[in-house]
Structures are given as C-alpha cells and as structure tokens.
Amino acid sequence: MTNSDIIDSLELTARLMELHNGDPFRTKAFSGAAFSLEKVTEDLTGQSVADLIKLPGIGKTVATKIREFVETGHLAELDELLAQTPPGVLDMFRIKGLGVKKVKTLWHELGIETLRDLRQASETGRVAAIKGFGEKIQQNILDNLDFLESQSGKVRMDKADRLAIQLRDELAELGRVEVSGQVRRRSIEVDTVELLVESDDPLAVQMYLNAKPGLTQDVPASSPFTWRGRAEGTDVRVAIITYPAAQFDQQLFIRSASGVHLAETGPTGKTLLQSATNASAGSTEETIYAQAGLPFVVPEMRENEQAFRWSQRHQPDELITWDDLRGTLHNHSTWSDGKHTLRQMADYARELGLQYFGIADHSQTASYAGGLTPERVAAQQLEIDAINADYKAAGLEFRILKGIESDILGDGSLDYTDEVLATFDYVVASVHQTLNMTQEKATARLLRAIENPYTTILGHPTGRLLLAREGYPLDFRAIIDACAANRVVIEINASPYRLDLDWRWIDYAMNRGVLLSINPDAHEMRGLHDMQYGVYAARKGGLTRSMTFNAFTLDQMNQYVAK
C-alpha cells in the first residue's frame, strides 16, 4: 500500500459522499485531507492516529479512517457507498468535464446508470436538453466516450512494465522466462502483457499457472501452448506462451516485432520473418538480421516503420540511453506543487549521477498549483544562488539552473513580463488551460510562444494524458519547423502519463535539426526516475544522444543557456 492508495481512497469517499448527499462538513474533511496529503513525503502507512493528526488538514476522524484502510485494506464507509453506486455511474467520473454535480444530475434526472445509457441519451439529444448541459457538453461527452472505448483494456507503459517484471520473477522457478511483445518493444500503451516460458512440457506449465494465486485463466481464449487470462488488479490481458528450447530464441524475436517489421525484405530476397523462422536454435537476433541482409534494429524500434530508413544513417549505439543523460530540466519543488524542497530535489539528482538540475516550478497564472509571483521568483532565485554557493564551496561540480514552467496563455504569450523572463537561465513554455481549441487556433497559439525569444523548451506539446485525455490537435510539422527556425528545444515529457512529444515525431524533429529534451516533470524525488520511460519512448523514435538536449554536459548546457 502506498500514500497514493490512501489519497485515492479518501478522494473517492469524498466524491461518493457528495454524490449521495452526505454530510457536507464530513465530505469537506475527506476531500481536504486528500488534498493536504498530496504534499506529504513521509510514508503514511506506518504512522499512528496520533502522528496523522499532527499533519495539516487531518482530523481524528480521517486519521482513524486512514489507519482502518492501512490495517484492513478497506474503508467500511467507502464499501457501503460503493455498494449503493452502480458501477456505470462510477465510470462516468472518467469523462473529462463531468464532476459530481453533473454525474448526479445524469443519474437522477435521466436514470443513466451505464456508459451505454449515457451514449444513447447523448446521441438522442436528451443530455443537451438538461439545464446546465447543452450541445457543447453533450458533444464533449460523446467525444470522450469514443476515446475511452478506444482505450479500453489498455494500460500505460509503466504499469505494463511492472506487471511483466513481477510475473517474470514469480515464474522464474519454471526456468527461462522472457518478457516479449509490446512490453519488450516499450509500447507506450499495452493491451497484452506477454511472456515466453521455455519448456518441453506445456501441460505442466499450464497447471502451474492455474495453481498460481492472482492469475485467472480465460479458458476459451487459451490453447495447449498459450495461457491467456488476467492478473489480479488489472484489466490488461496476460499471455504466457510455452516454447521448447529449439524454438525459443526465434519466437522471442518474432513475438517482439510488429508484422510490418517482420515483412521487411532484404537483398537476400528473404523477409525478416523467413530469416527468423529458418534460423538455427540459439541464433542471436543480430544473426537473424544478418541472414536477411538487413541492419540490426533494437527491440524498441521494431514497431517504428522508419526503422530501416533510420538505420541507413545511424547505428544502434547512437541511441540515447539513461547513462547518457547529464541533467534534467523540468522539475517542481515545494515552491509550487512539488512534494520535496528545492535542495532535496537537487541533491537527489546529484545522487543519481547528474551534473545539473533545472528547476521549473509553475508560473503565476497556475495559481491552483502555487504558481510563482515575480516576488517569489526573485526569492527562489536567491535560494538557488545560496545552494549553488554551497556546492561550489564543497568542491562539487553540480549546479542548479534557474528555470520556470511558464504557462502559455490563450493568445500565445508567456506568463511574465520580459524583465522577469530575462532573469531565468531557461524557460519551459507549456499549455495547461483551454485545451479545447481548434487545430488552427491551438497551432497559432504555440507558434507565438515558440517565436518568443525567451522560450527555450516547448513543454509537453499536446497536453495529452495517456488513456485519459487526448491531446489537442496541432499541425506538428508547422510546430517543429517553427522550433527549428527559432532554436527552440522540444520536450519529451517522460512522465508515463504523458510521453509527449509522441515518439512518432522524433525522426522529423531530428531531420529538421531540432533538439529534444527528456524531462521527467518530477514533482517529487522518485519522479526523477521517470526519465527512464522517456528514454524508452525516445529510443522508439530513434533519438540519438547527439540530438538530446539534456545529454549535454554542464559546460555545454551553460554555453547553450547563456546564448
């Protein structure tokens, strides 16, 4: 159990209390506690009621509920509320723009209890007819339903990766077990977590799996050699396939590449699939490519249709790796909505072996996230100077860079005067509000921000949240071309919730000479590790270390930001 689990349970309890017309003071206590705990860095699971009460916004009632949840894994009050709430009503909360009041109205006034009911009511115009809704909200509901249906049964890269590693470790006693499929290709969204087991006795493997707690077989979808089903706690499909040793390596390769990749034909006249199928037992993946007369492609790029064209100009060892990263440039601290102090964040970055840490707390318009006023900007920069002086006095070659994540306003302008913008080492310009523009307006907005001489990095360009929110529509070529013309770096936001810029546009950006920066958007120390997901996505798109902005050394970064 994690702090996030506790916070989520409190938030859901508060939401359902409001939905069921519960005591408003009690509802506020739960929602306020959830909000306050977002900033807590200590492990809540080990704290007593007396310790919890000492935390801001936590009263005795909520503290007692937290202990109940930690000790039993349940909140009796939440369970009761869930029992009174149709599952489809809960699903409506996943639709962007539908808060408790609107969901309550749809449920009570139209009797809507499933997403299917909601679609029918929207398609027939009944939702638009309700006071406070209208055509625009109705269309937003339909658009979001389409999006949610297209994402059904998928999980993000990070969740799929964790599940695959967990299953691989749990099945290790069977012998050789390898992760394959979408997870090995580092797909940003995964609908099947696939593993291969080496064995000459597929029946024994199936019996072992069916005796394993937490795994539920989908019998009709399974076969003697393939176990299909689900793992407890996730909706994503799981496939565990058994192969004998003589076929294992070939199948690991075949099942880790897309159909388009396997259909590529080399000068030998053989497709990659034919080469793999005919390869001798124990053949390496490099051998399989060589026998087809094709250049080796790393697993991450085996669903990139430009992979072989990329290979005409680059070698696999040019691809960015975690070890190539020298710094991180989009991070938050307790100055805005982060969980750890500036010094804690910077010290942790140094512990990870980085040479510099760029702070980019929220700008003043983002008041909901504690955005910095010009006066607080000046105060933060004084703290940065003091910490950098401490590093220098200690003989450490490490520096905090003074950055900001400036909101891009509705007209494309940045969030401070030029005088304030000039005080930063660099500026990450990002959109956080008004995400429903047309492609023409959204593109024009970003183009103006890119043309601002103080913009250094274009942050999470589309604003998407994977499996939850589509990004706003953009003319990507126009955006990338403008970044090339204005010497603006494009961010690959490494948060597994975003991975934005999408990897499919990396090749075009590199060809236009645009640098890319793998930034974690970290709001706490452990968030810095998200750069690994950014590296996975960057490698899928063919990003080289030479075109990675934060692979620059400290001296190179100093020279760049000083220009």
TrEMBL record:
Any one GO MF annotation of this record: exonuclease activity
Keyword Hydrolase in record: yes
Family matches, as SMART domains: HhH1 (SM00278), POLIIIAc (SM00481), POLXc (SM00483)
Polymerase/histidinol phosphatase N-terminal domain boundaries: 327-410
InterPro entries, per database record: DNA-dir_DNA_pol_X (IPR002054), DNA_pol_lamdba_lyase_dom_sf (IPR027421), HHH_MUS81 (IPR010996), Hlx-hairpin-Hlx_DNA-bd_motif (IPR003583), PHP_dom (IPR004013), PHP_phosphatase (IPR050243), Pol/His_phosphatase_N (IPR003141), Pol/histidinol_Pase-like (IPR016195)
UniProt superkingdom: Bacteria
Residue ranges of domain Helix-hairpin-helix DNA-binding motif class in the record: 50-69, 125-144
Keyword annotations: DNA replication, DNA synthesis, Exonuclease, Hydrolase, Nuclease
Every DNA-directed DNA polymerase X domain range: 1-303
Official protein name in the record: DNA polymerase/3'-5' exonuclease PolX
Lineage of origin: Bacteria, Pseudomonadati, Bacteroidota, Cytophagia, Cytophagales
